[in-house]
Amino acid sequence: MNVLEVKNLSVQYPGTEGASEIVKDISFTVEEGGITGIVGQSGSGKSTAMLAVMGLLDGRASVQYGQITVNGKVPAPGRNIAMIFQDSLSCLNPSVKIGRQITETVRTRKGCGRKEAAARAEELLETVGIRNPALRMRQYPFELSGGMRQRVVLAIALACEPDLIIADEPTTALDAVVQAQILQLLRRIVRETGTALLLVSHDMGVTAAMCRNVYVMHGGRIIEEGTAEDIFYDPSEEYTRQLLKDAKGGRLREKEKRNADDPASGEEALIRMTHVTKIFDADEGVRDVSLEIRKGEILALVGESGSGKTTVARILTGMLREDAGQLYYRGRIPQRGRRMDSFGGKVQMVFQDPYASLNPCLTVRQALSEALDAAVRLGGHDAGDEDARAAGHCLTEEEKEERIRKILALTGLSYGDADRYPHAFSGGQRQRIGIVRALITEPEVLVCDEAISSLDATTREQILELIFRVQRKIGFACLFISHDMHVVRRISDRIAVMYGGQIVETGRTKKVCSDPWHPYTKLLLEAVPEPDPVRAKKIKSGPVKEAAGTDLTDAAEGCCPFAGRCGYALECCRRERPEQYVFGDRSVSCFLYSDEHSGRRSSAYRMTSQI
Questions:
Q1: Which among 345, 413, 592 is positioned nearest to 422, based on CA atoms?
Q2: How many CA atoms lie within 13 A of 6 on its CB side?
Q3: Phi and psi (nearest 5°) for 212?
Q4: What does 307-343 look like in DSSP terms, one character per residue?
Q5: Per-residue pLDDT for 427 more than 60?
């Protein structure tokens, strides 16, 4: 029996040149107790179609359909259907505690009293794998991690007692381990409650891991449908084949050759952190972090949400000041009071959200011109300084225009795009503009903080090719922060793995990904879903319930931050914090590699993975 049946759904929006059809006469069904997937690039119309089914589109949209039924009946808008959105933080009221947000939903649905609703809310939090639900009920959304917030959103959806849950990119912003836990949780809920699930995603690996039936959307139409095995093993459409090729990483092979050659090994570190500590409230932050980036190399920094990756990035770019330790740029310590000035605009950052990082009131030309002027000021020059211009430190308006023209062409944008505003571009194009803005100052160090996490596979490949191509041309050093291990292993020369605010393993990317030494690195790699239905369903995630205790608190108390989740933990792991043990170009923070705790090895012993 079908829980949801949609026939001939179309959505149009009015425009200056006539109506624009976003969804074009699509039909699909969702089986009772099953998981159905809809996949496609960003902009293919997936989310618009789901909002139309829920009755959540604004008044400008013209929605037409032949039939939309739930369990054979025409529902009121959203009735018996719950929806989980991509950004859990924007779905939750930041000024209202978690408990109240869930209990209000329970009371609306069941018409019960507050005491009964509160008990049901705690039960729902327990169902979605949150430990100590009574504590979480008293907290605000900003006090929870991304994975925990997504669990709360799922609990609210279950409070509606829906026949169908529509999950629109529910794990896109999550790291591989937490993503695997959420996917496992969704599967368990479908199995135990009989609720049907419609999973909307651009991630082919997630779709392969979850779905029995799959629809492929392109240009507002459903161009292909079938079982997961049909779609992934024998696709009939070229578009589907390209999606699979991009998901498997069919390009950027040249970077893998560089891993073996190690061209940057002889270079002096361009930017370096030594024993850096930065602690916020509740002992969150980073502790004793040391890393270096050499000229011309890409260093990947990976780890779960809340592990401290963005804190490291903000210290490197001068946005944050460390509490202890030291930062070096070109072998010198930047001035404490004017660190960003000391960089002279040569350290730039590309942010995760291209929607939030671009000023909506500035055209592309204005944003790029502003970046050039800022670089001049940071370099200690005035834009109108004739002596500085004569020395080549400043640019005339004509020179600015020429540089804007060249950088746009280099990054695949046209010169005509310079007079458009951010709202006129797609998400992938906005991210290109963010990269252009960072590169136009010709930086020596580029920090990409989850710059591709919200992009579909095809757009992601385009952005990766862009970064890789420009990096080879300009030769900048790059700190590439990501939770996508597929991407990291293909684009980076070296990798640093963070957990609980500490670096737990570093080494050549190819070696670390093929032979992980730290237990967390191994867990991270095993949790990555492959775009293959058989292999993806075997992903490992660890417990569905969140880990006991906070890893950063464990680290603050002087023990290994991963000890509570590690299957290899020794007695000493709960009393002491491991140091960094170095073996050639590999380092690992784990007592399994310590002579003191694991036994002395002969001088001829060549260290290998101990897990």
A1: 413
A2: 21
A3: -90, -45
A4: SSHHHHHHHHTTSS--SEEEEEETTBPPPSTTHHHHH
A5: yes
Answer yes or no: are the C-beta atoms of 15 and 62 closer than 8 Å.
no
- On the question of pLDDT at 548 being above 50, the answer is no
Asked if 413 and 439 count as a contact pair (C-beta separation under 8 A), the reply is: no
As a residue count, the chain comes to: 611
Q: How far apart are CA 412 and CA 470, in angstroms?
A: 11
Q: Nearest-CA neighbor of 461 among 184, 186, 202, 284?
A: 202
Instruction: Give me the amino acid identity at 308.
Output: G
Residue that wins the pLDDT comparison between 60 and 389? 60
Most confident of 164-178, 182-196, 458-472, 542-556: 182-196
Distance CA 345, CA 340 (A): 7
DSSP letter (8 states) at residue 425: S
Output the six-digit token pair for 43: 């902009």
The burial class, CB within 10 Å (0-12 / 13-18 / 19+), for 228 is buried
SS (H, E, C) 530-589: CCCHHHHCCCCCCCCCCCCCCHHHHHHCCCCCCHHHCCCCCHHHHCCCCCCEEECCEEEC
3-state SS of 19-78?
Answer: CEEEEEEEEEEEECCCEEEEECCCCCCHHHHHHHHHCCCCCCCEEECCEEEECCECCCCC
Per the CB < 8 A criterion, the answer to whether 467 and 478 are in contact is: yes
pLDDT digit string, tens, across residues 248-303: 765 444 444 444 445 455 567 889 999 999 988 756 789 999 999 998 899 999 98
The rounded distance, in Å, linking the Cα atoms of 306 and 178 is 11
β-bridge partners, 118: none
SS (H, E, C) 201-264: ECCHHHHHHHCCEEEEEECCEEEEEEEHHHHHHCCCCHHHHHHHHHHHCCCCCHHHHHHHHCCC
347-350 and 445-449 beta bridge pairing: parallel
Q: Cβ-count burial of 289 within 10 angstroms (0-12 exposed, 13-18 middle, 19+ buried)?
A: buried
Q: How far apart (Å, rounded) are the C-alpha atoms in residues 64 and 47?
A: 16
Cα distances (angstroms) measured from residue 265 to each of 259, 302, 330, 468: 10, 21, 16, 19
Selection from 444, 123, 503, 466 nearest residue 312 by Cα: 503
CA distance 248 to 115: 50
Which residues are bridge partners to 496 per DSSP? 301, 506
Sequence letter at residue 16: T
Q: How far apart are CA 321 and CA 338, in angstroms?
A: 11
**What is the β-pairing status of strands 20-31 and 269-279?**
unpaired
Distance from chain centroid for Cα 611? 28
Residues near 302 by Cβ (< 8 Å), separated by ≥ 6? 309, 481, 482, 483, 485, 488, 495, 496, 497, 498, 524
- Residue pointed to by tokens 């239905």: 533
